[in-house]
Amino acid sequence: MRLKRTLLYILLLFFVYCNHANAIDRFKFPKEKLGHDFCDNLLDDLKFSSFPYGEEPFITYIDLLIEDIHHIDGKNLDFEASFSLWIYWKDPRLTKMFKEKNLYSGKGKPVWLCDYEADALWGSQKRLLDPGVEFYNRKDKPDFQSGLVDWVDIFSDGTIETRLRDTAKFKSNEFNFGKFPFDTQIISFELWSEFPSTMISLAPSKSMQNYSDSLYDFEGEDGIVIPAWELKNVKFDTYEYVEEDGFPYKGFRLFLEVKRLSSYYIYKVIIPILLILSISWSVFWIDRSQLESKVNITMVALLSLIAYNLIMDEVIPKLDYLTFMDAFIFLSYLYTGAATILCVYSYYRYRKYRRKINLVDYYAKFVGPISYFLGIIICSVIFL
Known about the structure:
The chain is α+β, with helices and mostly antiparallel strands. The chain folds into two domains: 33-261, Distorted Sandwich (Acetylcholine Binding Protein, Chain: A), CATH 2.70.170.10; 264-383, Neurotransmitter-gated ion-channel transmembrane domain (Methane Monooxygenase Hydroxylase, Chain G, domain 1, Up-down Bundle). The protein is 40% helix and 26% strand. The chain has helices at residues 2-27, 36-45, 92-100, 118-122, 206-209, 216-219, 263-281, 291-313, 324-353, 359-383, and strands at 58-73, 78-90, 112-116, 133-135, 148-155, 159-171, 184-193, 200-204, 229-242, 248-260. Strand 9 (229-242) and strand 10 form a beta hairpin. The chain starts with a helix and ends with a helix.
């Protein structure tokens, strides 16, 4: 029994030793330990800044994580966001060099070798290929390496990985304010390479491809809180196009569907305007001989509507179409102006005929508010 147990231990130790030996043989590291000067010496050997023409395109993988969206500016048609962008690709020339240095045999999992700052690789003397990845709809378009680069890692199989962290403003041409302030908007992040797809082929990471299936990567535990907006959906797609130079280019877009939180406009704009309209139409319960008081009330209401209209002009840009809020304020203008005109007409009839019952005031008390709310319902059906 003891002999069997001893033989079992021997076999187990032999198995562990073989695996360890195979692992060492797979990676074939130099006998001497990689010291601090290894990365300095490797940096001197990196001279692969140009594209190897005639070979297969470099497949460049992209992983974009939206960390926060600070502000969506409807007036300027842009938004501000913080993001992390991982970009990684494999340079076959590096792979060949590392094989010659016995750093990687082509089998097994590659290991990390060195990390560098962006200036060391893409400064005055370019040592590695710059895939030219950039945001197509970014307002300020910096070079690939000019963002807040955390690191540039080089692995033993020739893979180069970098992460850019930055906060920037992005343009959006997808805004439609027809339902404002009950609108839903689309904001997007568009990535592409300045090289044709025959040279640099962009490909999304697996996590990017899953964005269309779940909001988890964006929401996490607390979720992305967008001031005055709510994130509703995330979509992802790729696109290809041919530029004027005749070369095909490839990119992809990440769409975020956001819904405006309309409670602010309901409590701060719509309800106050309804109260203003109620006050303006209350003039028909005032004695018809008090023309000055009645006109003062309607004029104050009209000026208040003008002030609200100016406030709305600061929220959205100048448009060539009407929004729901435009229709609502215009309808309020119309009925406030009508109340002023009817007050003057009622006073005229009072002075001319001296009747105890004025039919204008009598019908205006009920017809005006009812028709106004019917107008709001019609606007809601048309715009919403």
